[in-house]
Amino acid sequence: MNKKHIFFDLDHTLWDFETNSGKTFEKIFKIHFIDIELTKFLKVYKKINFDYWRLFRNNQISKQALRYGRLKDTFDKLDIHISDELIHKLSEDYINYLSSFNHLFEGTIEILEYLKPTYKLHIITNGFSEVQFKKMKNSKMDIYFDKIITSESVGVKKPNPKIFEYALKVADAKKEESVMIGDSWEADIMGAKNFGVTPIFCNFENESVGESILSITNLTELKKYL
To answer: Rounded distance, CA 169 to CA 164, Å?
Structure first.
């Protein structure tokens, strides 16, 4: 593909967010003696969290509103009464403990080892800076990446073209030399494509997509393209 720079998303792409998030909730529920069926909670929470992140990505809510609202709405939907004080504490503990769990998607280290000698590797993430850097360090992925760009450091979120423009600038990369790999169709794939960077879709759930975009169902499949 004649590429030199590869930009990865982090959550849901390399770092197994759902697994790590579930283990975090299991831990903080035990700490606060909250008796709730974890599987039932996560099933409701996953959709609500996704919707809140979309609002956050579109600058319709604040970080604080996201952290509180996704928990409040989940408990309300499950008809479980939790005080606002405890919800705020759970929200705080969730962020503090999240990066202590570091399950990665199958093939993550293998593909990073494969790519590192040939390409400059970078991260572009909409996640919160204080958490993302801890995830990278604790999972021992930081050693593979040259630049880690967070939306908070730039002031805009994917798919805003400004974050891609900033990322290429700090990485000293050109559009035609770059690839964006991620799981979010809107933020990563369409964001990169509209900016002029080649996208590769981490289609781990085998979604049906209407456009002709390079896609993989396992990270090691990147070897076919890179």
So the answer is: 9
